[in-house]
């Protein structure tokens, strides 16, 4: 069947040379292959607030003003897709591009956008990622568009009423099926439109309405989620590739099977691999350009560098020694407000109740100690030249030093909490005669001085006055007393009862940050008795790493952040001599 229609006569294009404007459909929401998944843009979910006035770029380049060809004057969603009107600049480069668009030798369009909400799903074995809420940020003129349906619009002029154009039903059916495929609609939907003798214009309107309905249903639909391992997840790739970088500078590290595909890859090779996964062509691209592009696009290359630095930093951080840390208890803080530690006294003693008598009320004493965590940090940069030169030392040296510095800061903090003898909630220092945990007269570690300290701890009483029997577990000394303490604590294989060392089960800890060689400490196990305590922000123990492409530094910037604090929660688990 042949259908005769009134139609508009198309011009060569919608280019207006005088106003330097052109109209275009810059996105139809068509699916695009992105590495290991298909990406779809849900057109009704587009936020156009930043598109009007946004730049028109030359192939997404934004390094200088020379890369901007014009601006977007107007934008709206239409049944056929995202429509814009662009005004080009008056310089020669922009005019040349506009002329090429007018004569049809430049046809490709692309958009840059940010995504606020993704919806993940699968169609068979294929992973689908749908951008439910997204914001277009720029429009680019490109040689090869990702969305094949994006095009410059033809202008329209009124044709005489006596003229007609002819389109066969078969041609219309083909166009309707193309509309259905672009909108992500089923073959059954297209067949229903064809059976109803719909025109392509009517089918476009119906497709747009169906897309709006699908978007509304998505917000209330119950979705069954299947948890699988995604080998294209940037976080997974960064972990594996970061391990491979770490292994290059640490040959003793045994690579996991998952990281072996990245073994011995240089920074340039990792950057090239990251760009490929992001859909960026690297054919013929120089090493310097490859690394620069990988640092300033949405590739996972900065994540890989951050993971490698984090491994170096953590290794050095965990290796730094400290004696004080071993006798302090680690906890977490939920926020940066004051951390309050409530200590309850003993329950009151039981009293005899005579026949028919009343039970007497009792009270439990309590005290509260307070400390809080704070944020400490530093930003350092790794230059682009170091990455181009594949300089592993730039990573190992800086990261190793920062790891050692972070642990040293914590250890210094803890040691200062001991040596400064801060006041507790009762107004007395931690080590004070009133607390019964101070031998004021110095004596080197020997059987007598250890016996005095142990006896004082054994007779320690709680808030209610009852004995709590604190058991000594560690002896903490400055380096000057290490040899003396070792001799006293060495457990002798005695043949006679009189030769048995009663302190052989105490553990010696040497803390070089203790500067007074006439002070040392006997401490209970922090797992069984409260004393010195340190805390990290919940979910972030130790130094945390964040990575971004550098602005102040031509390369990559890495920020190290530490949320840490310490304080005394009780004095009874420690005894100081001297």
Automatic annotation (TrEMBL):
Protein name: Phage prohead protease, HK97 family
Molecular-function annotations in GO: peptidase activity
Keyword Hydrolase in annotation: yes
Top-level taxon of the source organism: Bacteria
A biological-process GO annotation: proteolysis
UniProt keyword list: Hydrolase, Protease, Viral release from host cell
Pfam families: Peptidase_S78, Phage_capsid_4
Residue ranges of domain Prohead serine protease in the record: 67-157
Gene source species: Gemmobacter megaterium
């Amino acid at each position: 069947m042949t259908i005769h229609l009134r139609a508009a006569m198309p011009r060569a294009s919608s280019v207006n040379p005088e106003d330097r404007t052109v109209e275009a459909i810059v996105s139809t929401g068509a699916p695009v292959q992105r590495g290991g998944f298909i990406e779809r843009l849900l057109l009704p979910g587009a936020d156009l607030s930043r598109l009007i006035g946004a730049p028109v770029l030359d192939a997404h380049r934004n390094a200088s003003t020379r890369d901007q060809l014009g601006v977007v004057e107007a934008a709206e969603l239409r049944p056929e897709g995202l429509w814009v009107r662009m005004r080009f600049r008056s310089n020669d480069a922009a005019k040349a591009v506009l002329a090429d668009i007018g004569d049809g030798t430049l046809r490709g369009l692309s958009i840059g956008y940010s995504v606020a909400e993704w919806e993940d799903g699968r169609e068979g074995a294929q992973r689908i990622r749908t951008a439910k809420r997204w914001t277009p940020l720029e429009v680019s003129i490109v040689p090869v568009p990702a969305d094949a349906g994006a095009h410059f619009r033809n202008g329209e002029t009124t044709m005489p009423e006596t003229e007609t154009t002819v389109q066969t039903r078969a041609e219309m059916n083909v166009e309707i099926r193309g509309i259905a495929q672009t909108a992500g609609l089923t073959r059954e939907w297209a067949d229903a439109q064809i059976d109803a003798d719909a025109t392509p214009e009517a089918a476009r309107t119906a497709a747009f309405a169906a897309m709006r309905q699908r978007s509304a249903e998505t917000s209330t639909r119950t979705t069954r989620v299947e948890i699988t391992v995604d080998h294209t997840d940037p976080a997974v790739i960064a972990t594996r590739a970061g391990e491979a970088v770490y292994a290059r500078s640490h040959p003793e590290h045994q690579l996991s099977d998952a990281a072996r595909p990245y073994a011995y890859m240089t920074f340039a090779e990792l950057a090239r691999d990251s760009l490929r996964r992001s859909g960026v062509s690297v054919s013929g691209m120089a090493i310097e350009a490859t690394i620069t592009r990988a640092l300033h696009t949405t590739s996972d290359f900065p994540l890989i560098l951050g993971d490698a630095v984090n491994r170096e930093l953590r290794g050095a951080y965990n290796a730094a020694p400290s004696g004080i840390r071993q006798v302090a208890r680690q906890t977490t803080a939920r926020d940066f407000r004051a951390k309050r530690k409530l200590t309850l006294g003993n329950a009151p003693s039981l009293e005899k109740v005579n026949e028919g008598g009343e039970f007497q009320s009792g009270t439990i004493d309590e005290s509260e100690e307070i400390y809080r965590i704070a944020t400490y940090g530093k930003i350092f940069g790794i230059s682009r030249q170091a990455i181009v030169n594949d300089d592993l030392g730039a990573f190992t040296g800086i990261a190793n030093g920062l790891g050692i510095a972070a642990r040293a800061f914590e250890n210094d903090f803890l040691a200062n909490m001991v040596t400064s003898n801060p006041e507790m909630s009762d107004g007395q220092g931690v080590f004070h005669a009133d607390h019964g945990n101070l031998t004021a007269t110095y004596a080197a570690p020997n059987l007598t001085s250890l016996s005095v300290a142990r006896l004082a701890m054994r007779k320690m009483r709680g808030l209610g006055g009852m004995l709590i029997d604190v058991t000594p577990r560690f002896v903490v000394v400055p380096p000057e007393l290490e040899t003396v303490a070792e001799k006293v604590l060495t457990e002798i294989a005695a043949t006679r009862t009189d030769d048995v060392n009663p302190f052989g089960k105490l553990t010696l800890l040497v803390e070089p940050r203790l500067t007074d060689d006439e002070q040392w400490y006997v401490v209970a196990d922090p797992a069984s008795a409260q004393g010195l305590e340190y805390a990290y922000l919940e979910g972030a123990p130790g130094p945390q790493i964040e990575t971004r492409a550098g602005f102040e530094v031509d390369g990559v910037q890495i920020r190290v952040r530490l949320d840490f604090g310490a304080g005394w929660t009780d004095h009874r688990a420690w005894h100081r001599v001297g």
